[in-house]
Design goal:
single chain; Purple Acid Phosphatase, chain A, domain 2; 5'-nucleotidase,  domain 2; 6-stranded mixed β-sheet
C-alpha cells in the first residue's frame, strides 16, 4: 500500500517576518509563508512542516521582545517540529528553556547535554503519527552552540560530526520501532558537515533524509550522499522546501520522492490575515520606539555575497577602523544580517542589519601571520562553500589570492608590500577572537606570546550608531581590496 506525504521545511528564518515589496509583488514574510503552509494542508491529507533551526535573531521584532514575539509568531505559523539552532541560545539557556514552555510545537535536539550527568537538555527525537504513517525526526546542532553558552559551563555538546553520527545511531537503536515509515534528520551544522555526517551514518540505521541549516545554503537539487538526499533552502522566509514523498506502508520505507524549492510571493501564496494582524502590532510598537532617522548615506549600499568584498562590508570595516588604535579591521560578513542599507538609515535599520553586540579586540601580528590569515580565510570561503567566515578588510589593504596555487600574489597595506617581520595591529570581533584557529588557521597562543590581545571596544553597535549619527552622505565601494583569482572553466 502506497501513501503520500508532503514534507515542507524552512531553515535559518532569523526573524525574517515581514514581506518586502519587489517587482510589483510582495516577497517572503511569515504571513505569506503561513498562507502557503495552510493551503498545502487544505489540499493534501498528509502534511508536515519542519524548521531546521535558527528562528531567532536578525530582526528588531525578535530582539526587542527577547524572542517572546518569535515564539508567538511561530505558534501562529504552527510548525509540526523544530530543531534547535545555535541562535536559539543567544538570550541564554535559562531563557530558552522558558521560551520552550511557551511554544505550542516540539523543539528537539540530540547532542546537547548537562556535563555532570550527561542528561540531554531536550528531547532528542519525535515520532509523529500522520494518519497512521510514523515519521521519526532527530535533530543535531553545530559546535557554535558552545560559544552561545560560554557563560554556562554546565552545558556540553557532542560537536564532532562523528560523535553526532554516533548519537543518531544511539537514538535509532533505542527508540526507532519497526513501525517507523520515514526517518528524517533535522540538522543545524552546515552543508559541508551534513555531507560528512551522511558519510558517517550506518546504512542499517535507515536514515532517509537530511534537512539542514546553519550555512544558509540554497540548493537547487538534493545532494545525494550515502543514498541520503541532503537539502537546505538558504535563509529567511523568501522560499520554502517541499518534499512530495511516496511511502510503502507495508515495507515501512520511502519508495519515491520529489523535492523542490518554491518562492513565497503574493502571486502564489494567500495572506494569513490573523498572523498579519499580530505582526502589525509588533511592528507598530518597534516603529514607535526605533523609527528615528540616524543618517542619510550617499546612496543605497549592498552586499551581493557574503563570500566576497562588498560595499556594506567595507563600510562597517572602515567605520570601526577609523580613528582607532589598530591598522586593519577584520570585519566578519556573518555579522551583517541584511543585504542592503540606505540611503535613509533609521535606528531600526541599524538594529536589524547588525543585531549582535560584539566586543572588539586588538591583536598584534607579524606580516607573515597577516598573510597566512588572509590566505586561510580566502581559501576556506571557497572550499567550504561559505560555511567558514569571510572577512571584509578596512581601507588601505590590497590582497590578491591565487586559488589554484593557494598563495597570495599581492599583499600590501597603505601602498607598501607587507614584510614578514612587519608588526600589524588588527581589530577582531569577540567571536572571531575566541574562534581564532577555525577562522584563520593559526594558534592564538603562539601569537599572544609576543603581546596579549587588548579589548578596545566593549559595544561595537554603539560605535556604529555614534559614527553614523555624526556623518552624512557616507559612501562605500568595492575597491579590489580582496581579489580571488580562479582558473576559468569552459
Amino acid at each position: 500500500m502506497k501513501d503520500k506525504l508532503v514534507l515542507l521545511h524552512s531553515n535559518d528564518m532569523h526573524g525574517d517576518f515581514l514581506a518586502e515589496a519587489r517587482d510589483g509583488q510582495h516577497i517572503g514574510g511569515v504571513s505569506l509563508l503561513s498562507g502557503y503552509v495552510q493551503q498545502v494542508r487544505r489540499e493534501n491529507e498528509n502534511v508536515l512542516y519542519a524548521i531546521a533551526g535558527d528562528m531567532f535573531k536578525g530582526s528588531l521584532i525578535d530582539s526587542e521582545f527577547l524572542g517572546f514575539s518569535t515564539i508567538e509568531i511561530m505558534n501562529y505559523l504552527n510548525p509540526d517540529i523544530v530543531a534547535l539552532g545555535n541562535h536559539e541560545l543567544d538570550y541564554g539557556l535559562a531563557h530558552l528553556l522558558f521560551l520552550e514552555k511557551c511554544a505550542r510545537f516540539p523543539i528537539i535536539n540530540a547532542n546537547m547535554y548537562i556535563k555532570s550527568n550527561h542528561v540531554r537538555l531536550f528531547s532528542p527525537y519525535k515520532i509523529m503519527d500522520v494518519n497512521g504513517l510514523n515519521i521519526m525526526f532527530i535533530a543535531v546542532i553545530t559546535e557554535e552552540v558552545l560559544s552561545s553558552t560560554r557563560g554556562e559551563p554546565i552545558v556540553g555538546t557532542y560537536v564532532d560530526v562523528w560523535e553526532a553520527a554516533r548519537q543518531v545511531g544511539v537514538i535509532i537503536d533505542n527508540y526507532k520501532t519497526t513501525g517507523v515509515d520515514l526517518t528524517v534528520l533535522l540538522t543545524h551544522i552546515g552543508y559541508t558537515n551534513d555531507i560528512e555526517l551522511a558519510k558517517a551514518l550506518n546504512p542499517k540505521w535507515g536514515v532517509d533524509l537530511i534537512i539542514g541549516g546553519h550555512s544558509h545554503t540554497l540548493l537547487s537539487k538534493p545532494k545525494i550522499v550515502n543514498d541520503i538526499p541532503i537539502v537546505q533552502v538558504g535563509v529567511g522566509s523568501d522560499q520554502i522546501g517541499r518534499f512530495d514523498i511516496e511511502i510503502d506502508r507495508e515495507e515501512h520505507k520511502m519508495t519515491a520522492y520529489r523535492w523542490q524549492v518554491l518562492p513565497i510571493t503574493s502571486a502564489s501564496c494567500p495572506v494569513d490575515e490573523v498572523l498579519e494582524k499580530v505582526l502589525s502590532e509588533y511592528k507598530d510598537e518597534t516603529d514607535r520606539k526605533y523609527g528615528r532617522l540616524l543618517t542619510i548615506l550617499n546612496r543605497r549600499l549592498t552586499m551581493e555575497s557574503k563570500r566576497q568584498e562588498s560595499e556594506l562590508g567595507n563600510l562597517f570595516a572602515d567605520l570601526m577602523q577609523q580613528d582607532s588604535s589598530f591598522d586593519v579591521m577584520f570585519y566578519g560578513t556573518g555579522s551583517l544580517r541584511k543585504k542592503e542599507l540606505g540611503p535613509s538609515v533609521q535606528y531600526s535599520d541599524l538594529k536589524e542589519i547588525i543585531p549582535f553586540v560584539n566586543e572588539v579586540h586588538m591583536l598584534e601580528v607579524t606580516g607573515r601571520q597577516f598573510r597566512d590569515m588572509c590566505r586561510y580565510f580566502l581559501r576556506q570561503s571557497i572550499d567550504t562553500k561559505g560555511v567558514s567566515e569571510f572577512f571584509n578588510l578596512s581601507r588601505g589593504v590590497r590582497v590578491v589570492y591565487d586559488y589554484e596555487k593557494d598563495e597570495l600574489t599581492e599583499c600590501s597595506l597603505n601602498g607598501h608590500p607587507v614584510a614578514d617581520e612587519q608588526l600589524i595591529k588588527i581589530g577582531l570581533q569577540d567571536f572571531h577572537y575566541r574562534n581564532f584557529k577555525s577562522c584563520f588557521g593559526l594558534d592564538l597562543t603562539e601569537i599572544e606570546k609576543r603581546r596579549k590581545a587588548r579589548t578596545v571596544v566593549t559595544d561595537d553597535f554603539s560605535v556604529y550608531e555614534e559614527m553614523l549619527a555624526g556623518s552624512e552622505r557616507l559612501d562605500s565601494h568595492v575597491e579590489g581590496r580582496l581579489v580571488i583569482k580562479k582558473r576559468e572553466t569552459a
